[in-house]
Amino acid sequence: MQKILIVEDEKAISGVLVSILSDELSNYEFIVAEDGLEAYKLLEKEDFALVISDIKMPKLSGAELLKQALQLKPDTTFVMISGHADIDTAVDCLKNGAYDFISKPIDINRLITSVRNALDKGSLQKTNQHLKSENTTLKKKVNKKYQMIGESAALKKIQEMIEKVAPSDARVLITGPNGAGKELVAHAIHAQSDRSKGPMIEVNCAAIPSELIESELFGHVKGSFTGAIKDKQGKFELANNGTIFLDEIGDMSLIAQAKVLRALQESKVSPVGSDKEIKVDVRVLAATNKDMAKEIQAGKFREDLYHRLSVIEIYVPPLDERKEDIKMLIDHFAKTIADEHGTAPKQFDDKAVKALEDFSWTGNIRELRNVVERLVILGANPVTAEDVASFVRK
């Protein structure tokens, strides 16, 4: 049963309020506090659907109670009771977040109407918060393939950055070694962004020959080069109203870099072999395992493009810098792999986990997954340190 807190130092008045309101609101429980300090202590312990508070009270005034309570629980709904001399204070209370104030002597009908409206307002507020919470939860749902597993300080820092960055349209450059999880960060940013309902298009810049990268990114028209037998949309156009993820951006040719820079500056792309410009609304995420300062110094990467891409930079550390996550990763991979193979998941005993934690993971999380899969297939159940010694090379 929901509760209503009445804060009144005069017992006669609090008794009348409880008597009147309990008849009208039989589905609520009424609690009485005789001063503001007692009320604040009750608010620290539990939530109330409504607080009805006098303004002039010993120990802690109603005005101070309102301020402190809303700092503690911003969604608490207050109706203030004021004497004629307290009208200015009551008005200040409204400015500070109170829903309404009732003047003494109390008009019963006015009181009942105000209380009912305040309760409806509080209920609507909670409903809106619930819907917002559900919406946030939906945004945070990431495909299981891209879950970020672990509780290390390094991973929590990355997750905090993602939460701050995702709602904006800021470009993000994700750096870190191969296999550390840069792709997971990109997917998490997209999933938590306002573009999550739009497409996320991935481009592995290292896997596409330099002579084809422009066609992949910006598209081409039929006959623009040998093999262009029909018009083709580019990745930027396909990502319109969504996100494009340029993985291994450090491997892109200087010619393609110039075209990407222009696309970022003008939000337009031109297909290869065409003079037509296509307007695109795309958020750009990029990733690299290279030291970009060295690449720029060596003339292999445009400094102006780097600054365009790295409005926000998120560094993903190697697994050797977050070894406290290895146990959780092992459990996650063992279950995932078992599901893929249609078998029961294998356990890893403590010594096996310790042996894996002692390894130097140059291939990072990608290497760890491969090792877990090998041990799930070849090892005993539970997997032992002996299995690790037999089937994993240091």
Automatic annotation (TrEMBL):
Sigma-54 factor interaction domain sequence ranges: 148-377
SMART domains assigned: AAA (SM00382), REC (SM00448)
Domain Response regulatory span(s) in chain numbering: 3-119
InterPro entries per record: AAA+_ATPase, AAA_lid_NorR, CheY-like_superfamily, P-loop_NTPase, Sig_transdc_resp-reg_receiver, Sigma_54_int, Sigma_54_int_dom_ATP-bd_2
4-aspartylphosphate: modified positions: D54
Molecular-function GO terms, alphabetical: ATP binding
Annotated Pfam families: AAA_lid_14, Response_reg, Sigma54_activat
Key words of the record: ATP-binding, Nucleotide-binding, Phosphoprotein
Record GO biological process: phosphorelay signal transduction system; regulation of DNA-templated transcription
CDD domains documented for this protein: AAA
Protein name: Fis family transcriptional regulator
Organism phylogeny: Bacteria, Pseudomonadati, Bacteroidota, Flavobacteriia, Flavobacteriales
